Amino acid sequence: MNAATGHESYSARIQWLREDLNRHAHAYYVLDQPTIPDAEYDTLFTELQQLETKHPDLITADSPTQRVGGAPLPEFAQVQHDVPMLSINNGFSEDDIRAFDRRVSEGLEQSGEVEYACELKFDGLAINLRYVDGVLEQAATRGDGSAGEDVTANIRTIHSIPLRLRTEHPPKILDVRGEVLMFKADFARLNQRQRDAGLKEFANPRNAAAGSLRQLDSRITAQRSLRFFAYGIGHLDGAALPDTHSALLDWYSELGIAVCDERAVVRGADGLLKFFTDIGTRRAALAYDIDGLVYKVNRVQQQQALGFVSRAPRFAVAHKFPAEEATTTVLDINVQVGRTGAITPVARLAPVSVGGVTVTNATLHNEDEVRRKDIRIGDSVIVRRAGDVIPEVVAFVPERRPADAKEFLMPTTCPVCGSVIIRPEDEAVARCSGGWLKCAAQRKGGLQHFVSRRAMDIEGLGEQLIEQLVDRGLVTTPADFYKLGLVALSELERMAEKSAQNVIDALTVSKSTTLPRFIYALGTRHFGTLDALMAASEEEMLAVEDVGPVVAQSILSFLHDPLNRELIEQLRAAGVHWDESAVERQSQHLNGKTFVLTGTLPNLKRDEAQAMIEAAGGKVSGSVSKKTSYVVAGEEAGSKLAKAEELGVPVLDEEALLQLLENPT
Ligand code: D41
């Protein structure tokens, strides 16, 4: 501290500001419990910055102002790890985990159940933080385990890593080990920024974290919102090592080092497997990606007794989830015609196992997407399939692009019916202009949609049956289903009389339906009762709250099409009906709920989803706030999804939305 006259008061103020700012930052980044508004933090921060600018001799390395990054480095220096950073053995199945527990028990010659500390396996980069006398001195990547790279300047920009430990009596040397990662919301924001700036997007949060940490210019890292969770220890000098792994993490927490809350101490293999099931149900809702769990023998003495196999400790195992991403080759790119005529480019892939299933096709969404991601035939690509989501191509691998990789050409005519493909100037989607009557793909898609579970729910009318019915000219419109007789059905391939009768029965049952189902089945949007709507003029529609000119126009154009009106009449003539009063009652269950739609849903068009939400009493708004009840997110969801995650607004996918619409709970 400088003792020159007049300095003491500045010095005390600087000291106070640093401590106050550090306390707020710790509450925000480590405890996830903000204590002051961002603007107030910024005011204090600016005051500190100004004082330090006037008195540069008072700047210390652990000042919160020193997290903004500095001049670029020519290269990263190599760092030798004092204690090697080991790797961890993987297990994939219940059997693997039971075998691990058995090996541990036998190794410890213990009869009772072994105590384990369970934690998450973060999908980031392993790092070693060296604190000397409580001050962050050096940070290094794991590298090959023996030596890594000095990334201290970058690590200093991560707010959940303290520059000074929160203790009066710090150890002489403490090597904290953990993972640097990027939260999903920060990743979405970063990619949005990259997109806006016309820069390349990152394939996933892990790549984004790696790319950000390996920046020679730490000022770029400072803008990337990286996070850190501690999970291990290297060299320790000048303090007693806690007896258990769980106590080590508690100690870290006291020292102001971020550890993850999602951890547990359990006994035996059953305890491990229960933790696996628990986390599995919450995985999608976590703010960050994990690729599995890590189980560690809790008692340090027992850890030491077990020793090592090659470069991995015997006391720990990673219980990995099936990989949600895999790399494979694009054999071809062609297009699929959907029920609305939408032309979707699809990558045909060399078979690869992703998320536990074999994938041979992956969607490329639309032409712009193919260009933006620059995917070519022959490329090695990263394919992702998370949960029930349709597999998609995330990115190509530049280093593996063959010289003869071929660009995809959007066809100008429909591969199914030969009609011209039209892409309106302001739309991303190109469509076959053949329509329902000309294009068998649209007809089949539309008919499949009509009978699907969420629509008219006609069991037994599968894809292959519809294929035959359309190809034989037995069914052209949904109304034709209701004209099918037992004899005609029985004559189809793979159709016994029994199953034909089942289809007839299912058709009969389906006639009694609800208005939302009927609307959904037709694939258009709607409000109020159908009779009123069919008679309504545009003016009358515009008088209804929330119906804008665009929406009114889309309803009108659907209903003004004589073919559509005829279809509705035919279906009603065939006996399809619903109880309007029941619909009214049912339509209340989303009353007072506000939804925001973002991204592209796998099946529902945006206005269809909006119609269904409104038919159930809910409202759809354009922007996310604390008052938003749900955000419905599809592919390419951007800042709205990030905002929802930031505000803790529940996020639904299409499946969850449909479930919510169906179950008035
Ligand atoms: O979350 C992780 N990625 C994680 C990695 C974790 N939770 N625990 C880990 N524990 C270890 C040992 C048992 C060796 C201390 C690890 C890793 N190692 C690890 N990460 C990269 C290589 C090894």
Layout of secondary structure:
Blueprint: H1 7-30, H2 38-54, E1 78-80, E2 90-91, H3 94-108, E3 115-122, E4 125-132, E5 135-141, E6 147-149, H4 152-155, E7 173-182, H5 184-196, H6 205-213, H7 218-222, E8 226-237, H8 245-254, E9 264-267, H9 268-282, E10 290-297, H10 300-306, E11 308-309, E12 312-313, E13 316-320, E14 325-337, E15 342-354, E16 357-363, H11 367-373, E17 380-384, E18 392-396, E19 421-422, E20 430-432, H12 435-438, H13 440-451, H14 463-471, H15 478-481, H16 486-490, H17 497-510, E21 512-513, H18 515-522, H19 530-535, H20 538-543, H21 549-560, H22 562-573, E22 577-578, H23 580-586, E23 594-598, H24 606-615, E24 619-621, E25 630-633, H25 639-647, E26 651-652, H26 654-662
Parallel strand pairs: 2-13, 21-22, 23-24, 23-25, 25-26
Antiparallel strand pairs: 1-6, 3-9, 3-10, 4-5, 4-7, 7-8, 10-13, 11-12, 14-15, 14-17, 15-16, 15-20, 17-18, 19-20
Helix pairs in contact: 1-2, 3-9, 5-25, 13-14, 18-24
This protein binds ligand D41.
Ligand D41 is lined by residues 86-88, 119, 121-122, 126, 142, 179, 231-232, 294, 296, 313, 316.
